[in-house]
Amino acid sequence: MTSYKRKITLDKFNSYCDSRTKTSLGFQSETSKPANNLLWIAPNVLAGNTAFQVRKRCELPKLFKEILEKTVPGHSSIICDNHKKYYALITTTTIYLYLYQSEPVNIEMKLKDHHETLPFVNIFHTNDKISLAVTNAKTNKVLYWDNVLVSKATTYTLPLRSQADVITATCTLNQQKLLVVGTRMGDLFPLALKKDLIQPISHHEDDDNTGVVSYISSFFIKRPLFDSPAAEQEERIVGIVNVLDTVYVLTEKHIQVWHVDSNLQLKLTANISILKDLVESISQHIPNNVSIDNIRIEPLDIDSKLKNELVLLSSYQLPVMGDYIQYAASTISIKNTPDESTHFRIKHTASAPFSANTQSSSIPKLSISKSIAFITFDSHVIAVSRNKKSAFEEPVVLSDDDRILCTQVEREGQEGCIESATIYTLKSGIFDYDIDIQKIQGAEIDGNMYAGYVSNTVDLDTSIIQSKLEQAVLFGASQDTSIRFPLSIEQEDISSAVSKVLDELMENTLFLPLSLDAELRAEARYVFVNRIFEVLLENNLRSYVNIALRVKLMNCAEICYIAVYLLQEYNGFVDDEPLTKVWSEAAKNTSVLMKNKGDVKVFFSTEVNKIYQFLDQAISVCFTDIVQENDRPNVVYKMLDILMRVLESGRYFKESFTPLYEIEENKDKDHLLSKLVACFEKTAKYVLDNDKQGNSKLVEKLYEVADKLMECQKTDSQREDDVPTLVMKYVLLLGKSEFAIKLAEKNQDFTTIVRLTNDKSNKGDVITRNAAWIDKLGTPYLLYLFKWLGEQGKDEEILEFDSKYPNQVATFFSKVKLSVSWKYYLQHKQYEECLNAIFIVLVDEKQVKKRQELLAWAKMITLQNERDKNREANVFENTNYTDVSVLLEHEYIQVQLLNEFNKYLLRTDSTNKLTTIMNKYCLKSRLGNNTDLEDFSNAIKTLLQGISLSEHQLVFLLLHISGYKTVVENITTALQLVSHMKNLKCAISKSLQNTIWKEIYYRDVNAYQATSSGTHSDVSVRSIMQGTLVFRILNSARKSKIEVDQMIEPSKIEFEDNDDDKRMEIGSKGFGQFINQICLLASDNSSLTLQEMKTIIQI
Q: Which of 459, 497, 508, 1077 suits 529 as a labelling partner, its CA being 20 to 30 A distant?
């Protein structure tokens, strides 16, 4: 048998992805606006959409990578300037400079003092030299190299006020070579850096005591200066930034504004309290139902590109957030007014979509461009809009084993252009993060999903999650991707996003342009479609996608998988001209796009939704004049071979991915199986119409296909009975009965042979038709035959085999219970089994006539049993049956009940339900169990509650049920049934009671007339009274201890105008006395009055 390749290969796609990220070291990056979703095709693009893109620029210098791999995380950092072409790698012991020139220069600078933490490093770069200042946070020493290539370091020790004080921030004024150092206790040290000297510079507060301001109640006012830093509460300096002649200092609660004059002296002009404003601004990002009373805000970093405008990065935490904190970037305006006051305002605050545990020791850093704030965490860089024109917030997330070294803004931007940052990573190299400001600040009507002002936030948020899903699918599919694409949802419609991405991929869209190589296109489509659900699983979003959409996803992935497989099959026989011609013609016939070309590769990469139609066409073309007659056997042979491999491959896909998609059972039609069946049938007909001997190779292939088809049917939960029937039919027509038997034995499927043998077109009685197979296969075949006859409702025919194959028939009936079983046992005088089989049939039999027939047979069997008793040969002596005659009476009353229900209800489903209830009750009695009549009657009561009956219909129905002259036990059963229906409808009205007793008295009028004739003895009268319905009702009530309602006296019965003459008899005094005598007789108490008599009729 042929060995089948089950899996596709993705060589084209993997090779293409590898080639996209081949980069060389370089600093300047070519930047272009993101145009469309073709970005995944562009070289080095790692993520993006129409508004932004992330590209890999180059690798870090080899030396840097080697050092970083050996360095403990947190003990290294990088400073860089791509415009001035240098990198600086900083560790606790050494500084490495890499100068990117025509001949790259590596400089290694050992630090004199060992640093427990990373030192602060500031680089001054001019045209002719690079200067370097290193500040040791612990030893308080500042080292300065005026020219890193030639000079030695100059050292200066800062005069900190306390040993507990440490350096927390530094900043440089590049043109003036001024270094500003801040400390934990809030002190500021300006230092002039000269060739061989580090010189402190004096700084002071405003001499007229008007410079420092505080923010109070939305107004800025002047207040007196403090005498010295010690007089104020100590506040750690968090960050320092310089713009032109102004230095901004961020502390834990304030922003200080210092002016730098021409003599490099610093003058404090404002000290602004910021926490209250931050609380108010950040509160806009907190749900209304959450109190902000206990909010904790901590300023973390500061940056500025324009004088009088700052961006402040802060963290905030609320009790409801537990151990997690979130982050916000606030754009702040600080302006001096004509009256020398300082105006302070938070223009905009953007909350970063990121939260971190409070235990994290890492503090994020801030870098800004004109319109964007880039917030850098250990493995994330989040870009957020700095103004209300846009709600842009997009992260770049590294893989788990990588980390970000630093982020530097490259292009600060002009109005409507690209703004960019460069991200330096430990393992993945250097990335450019480009953002099209014009796109992200556009209007919603122009299709901008990042618009600051939107009419429907859910739709826009869904568009954003769709974009993120697209990126996760397109860029995350590469095996060596260095970026992750986490997804989280709140109000977004993820199902809608998934459907749109899937539809885009299945159609010929911008994702998969026609310019791509056809094989690459087909492989990419499969990878992307299959990855959609992988992304959902990676982000725990599976539960948001219903089963129908999951089935659609898997079906589309399967079609794409088959397209790739067929394309690879085509590559394998592309030099086979006859078969290639068949596939080309099939492509033309299937697709309008292929009408003139018939390019099979293009077809598989563009018309993926028409794969099954293509296979239909290919099979048909094999048997047309397109194929020359001498080529046909070979072409058909290869087509069958390919279809078998495709089927195997498709089943491999389902076995592999059904668990992934969490689909219990795909009930869709197996299209590949149906194509193989169709080709099998056409080929078999072709062989039968031509010379079988001359096509022996093709015949052998048909047997191989038959084996595969039968095997598939054996394992399929959705078995199609017509497939094995068709297979066996042609196997037998081809003259291979022995092979048919092998198939049946291998697949445990004799039923198909049975079905074919007993087809309506086959003449003769059942034994004659099956004789040949019985001779060949013996008992196993017979048992399959009997089972099939029973399933087809032809169980009567099984009895025909009894005389010739008694042992097999006996074996079958011992294991299987059929409606005909009782007849078999009756023929063999096995009365106990016969009676038992009758009762089993009665459980499900709902036709009254058949039930009556079965009861009649059961009655005759019991009579036979009585005769056997007289001969001391009781056939039931070893059973646990109660009195069979009583059971038969129970069955008899069921027949009567069914008659009444059919008469009044006229609803088949209700009658069937009643039969089921009563059969269950009688089955308990038959097995000798105590029957719970209350449960029984309640079950019928529940049934009747669902039926639309008028009150009078119900009353008459119950009266008819109770009026049959059966044994007392059955009458009691019927009356108890009525008794427990009290709550079926509203309490019975007087008119309904009147109807009931009128019907009872009607039945006893004849008895009254007989006793009043005077021709009967006292004994006869007593006997007549005991036969009345009134007596039987009262006697049954007394014996069963049933509670009763007040009985209506005959004289008080009300009649309708159309009532017959019996009304005169019932209303007479004599009839009343007659009923009174019956009541006394039934009570065995002559003192009992008529008014004390009760009835059990209750509704």
A: 459
**Largest Cα–Cα separation, the chain:** 155
- Non-local (6+) Cβ contacts of 963 within 8 A are 1003, 1029
> What is the spatial distance between Cα 205 and Cα 521, in angstroms, rounded to a whole number?
69
Residue bearing the bigger pLDDT, 106 or 304: 304
CA-nearest of 349, 347, 344, 352 to 325 is 352
Please report which helix (H) or strand (E) contains residue 751, including its range: helix 751-757
Rounded Cα–Cα distance for residues 749 and 710 (Å): 9
Contacts for 633 with CB less than 8 Å, ≥ 6 apart: 695, 697, 698
**C-alpha distance from residue 43 to each of 14, 22, 411, 483 (Å):** 14, 8, 21, 15
Chain mean position to CA 108: 56
The packing angle between helices 722-733 and 737-747, to 10°, is 150
Evaluate whether 738 touches 777 at the Cβ level (below 8 Å). Answer: no
Task: Tell me if 535 sits within 8 A of 617, measured CB to CB.
Answer: no
pLDDT given for residue 381 in this prediction = 94
Rounded Cα–Cα distance for residues 62 and 186 (Å): 40
Which of 249-263, 469-483, 756-770, 1081-1095 ranks highest by mean pLDDT? 249-263
**What's the pLDDT score for residue 963?**
35
Query: Helix crossing, 518-538 with 494-506: angle to 10°?
Result: 170
The C-alpha R_g of the chain, in whole angstroms, comes to 48
pLDDT of 873 higher than 60? no
Mapped onto helix, strand or coil, the DSSP state of residue 1028 is coil
Pairing mode, strands 167-173 and 178-183: antiparallel
List Cα–Cα distances, 768 to 530, 731, 773, 798, in angstroms: 56, 22, 10, 13
Residue 1009 structure tokens: 């007339």
Round to whole Å and give the CA distance between 617 and 621: 6
SS3 80: strand
Kindly report, residue by residue over 466-501, the tens digit of the pLDDT: 999 999 998 888 777 889 999 888 888 899 999 999
The beta-carbon contacts of 252-256 under 8 Å, at least 24 apart in sequence, are 252/298, 252/299, 253/299, 255/302, 255/310, 255/312, 255/332, 255/334, 255/344, 256/188
Nearest to 213 by CA among 277, 275, 269, 276: 269
Q: Half-sphere exposure of 936 toward its Cβ, with a 13 Å CA cutoff?
A: 21
d(CA 588, CA 591): 6
Cβ neighbours of residue 959 closer than 8 Å, sequence gap 6 or more: 996, 999, 1000
DSSP 651-672: HHHHHHHHHHHT-S---S--HH
pLDDT at 681 over 70: yes
With cut-offs at 50, 70 and 90, classify the pLDDT of residue 908: low
pLDDT score of 890: 57
- Return the SS3 of 244: coil
* C-alpha–C-alpha distance, residues 428 and 422, integer Å: 13
Least confident of 371-385, 578-592, 762-776: 762-776
Q: Report the distance separating Cα 372 and Cα 51, nearest Å.
A: 13
**Calpha distance 548→140 (Å, rounded):** 67
Report the alpha-carbon distance of residue 1031 to residue 350 in Å, rounded: 93
Which has the closest alpha carbon to 531: 473, 580, 611? 473
Contact 389, 350 (CB under 8 A): no
The separation between the first and the last C-alpha atoms of the chain, rounded to the nearest angstrom, is 75
Cβ atoms of residues 441 and 389 within 8 Å: yes
Burial 626-651 (b: 16+ CB within 10 A, else e): bbeeebbbebbbbbbbbbbbbbbbbb
pLDDT in tens, 339-381: 667 788 999 999 888 777 766 667 899 999 999 999 999 889 9
Cβ atoms of residues 64 and 87 within 8 Å: yes
Over the chain, what is the mean pLDDT? 77
- pLDDT for 926-953, tens place per residue? 444 444 545 555 565 566 555 555 444 4
